[in-house]
Amino acid sequence: MKFRGKIIDVACLNHFTRVITTISKLTKMCVLRLTPDNLFFVLSGKVANGGVSMWCELSQANFFDEYQMEGVSSEDNEICLEVTPENLSRALKTVQNAKAVKVKLTKKHCPCLTIAAELPTLSSASRVVTHDVPVDVIPRRLWHEFKEPNMPDFDVSIYLPPLKTMKNIVDRMKNLSNFLVIEANLNGEMNLKIETDLVSVTTHFKDLGNPPWGDDASQDGGASQSRDPEAMVEARVDIRRLQQFLMGQQVNPSKAMCNIVHQRVVHLILLHEDVSLQYFIPAVA
Where in or outside the cell (predicted)? Predict the structure, then answer.
């Protein structure tokens, strides 16, 4: 099992750091799955049991100038590691002005992702800073838990309003209740609602648009085809989980979408040209 990668381009390093920082805001621990073409950051909480789950996919060619890996075997050419994204984010933030950054799987007192950065100096001598981020190697028998989640059979899919605007609203609403209702329809309308015994507050968004999903998604299925475009579909979620998602965003997505399975789950998707992030928040009764 071997892995080593090298990032020389400063813009790629900054972007990679922003992605890791975003993930660190969403979860304390996650699985880093390495394949020859991609890196995946996975949190496989069981949504049915009330846990959030996450799937973030990066194309290695868009970040790494050099990338080599050998998996467990030729048939299973993957490596799965449990990591603390916060530790990875901290290490990367300290080497932002490096001439080159190498990331390597090493065996010290325990398995580590070793980040070695060549920093610029005034003299001809180079200065290398090294961080060892401990990881746990996940055995092959558990890999099935970290596969890409299926697209839920959603009732409504809608583009999200600007994330900063949404974050400001959710931050204010958090002071009123622990729960928030997200509702949307096929007419590009979305509402964020708080309803308690003392107060009822709703923020309305219009003309957001609905994504044109392909044949494999349920948006082309009979249920949503026959749905009244004005009819609202809703899910009540823990407001802290939504706030966590909005607080962490540093990916600057080109598209941000929300799929709702009525009273079951909210599926949030952020798309950047070289990163996709999916986040599942279960509905609460």
Answer: Cytoplasm, Cytosol; Nucleus
Position 182 scores a pLDDT of 97
Is residue 22 one of the residues assigned to a domain?
yes
CATH number of the domain bearing residue 41: 3.70.10.10
pLDDT tens readout for residues 166-182: 999 999 999 999 999 99
Domain finish residue from 113, 146, 179: 146
pTM, two decimal places:
0.88
Residues 6+ apart with CB under 8 A from 179: 194, 236, 237, 238, 239, 284
Q: What are phi and psi of 55, to 5 degrees?
A: -140, 115
Amino acid at position 247, single letter? M
pLDDT > 70? residue 217: no
DSSP state at residue 9:
-
Tally of domains within the chain: 2
Quick check: 151 and 214 in contact, CB under 8 A?
no
In eight-state DSSP terms, residue 222 is H
What's the distance, CA 157 to chain centroid? Answer: 18
Which pair of structure tokens corresponds to residue 248?
A: 């962490």
